[in-house]
Amino acid sequence: MSENSMQRRNFLQLLAGVFALVLIKPINAFAAIWNKTAFEAIKLNEVSNYLNVEVEIVSQDIIIMAPEQAENGAIVQIEVTSNIANTETMAILVENNPTPLIAHFTFSNGAQSYIVTRIKMAETSDIKVLVKVGDQYFSNTKNVIVLENGCG
Questions:
Q1: Residue 43 falls within a domain, yes or no?
Q2: Would you call 112 helix, strand, or coil by DSSP?
Q3: pTM higher than 0.90 for the full model?
Q4: What's the domain range around 29?
C-alpha cells in the first residue's frame, strides 16, 4: 500500500471519528436530561420520588383544559397553562395508566409555560400536572372519564 493511500485512509478514519463524535454529543446531552426511571415507573408516588418531589402545593394557577369525557382514550387532547411565574418544568401524569408519566417539559429564558398535546389514557383517571419553580412543586388535577380504552 502506498504512503498516499495510508495517509488518505488515516484521514478518512479521523474524519469519520470526528463526525461520529459530533452526532453522539447531542444524543448524550438529551439522554442526560431524560429521566428514564421516572418514565418507566408504574406508580404515581414512584414518579414523584424520581422527579425529586417532596411536597406539592395545590395551585389553581395551573390550568388544565381537557374534555370531561373522552370517547376514545387513545387520543385525548389537553391544553395546560402554568400562570406561576418562573415555571421551570411541567410534568403531565395520568394515574391509571400503565406508566403514569406522560410527558416532562423544560422551559427556559422566560418561555411561556403553555402546552397543547394529545395523550393516551388507559381508563377514567385524573390528569395531574406538576410544575417546578425553584425548589418548590405545584400541582393541579382534572378528572377525565374515558369511554373507550386507549392503551390497549
A1: yes
A2: coil
A3: no
A4: 1-33
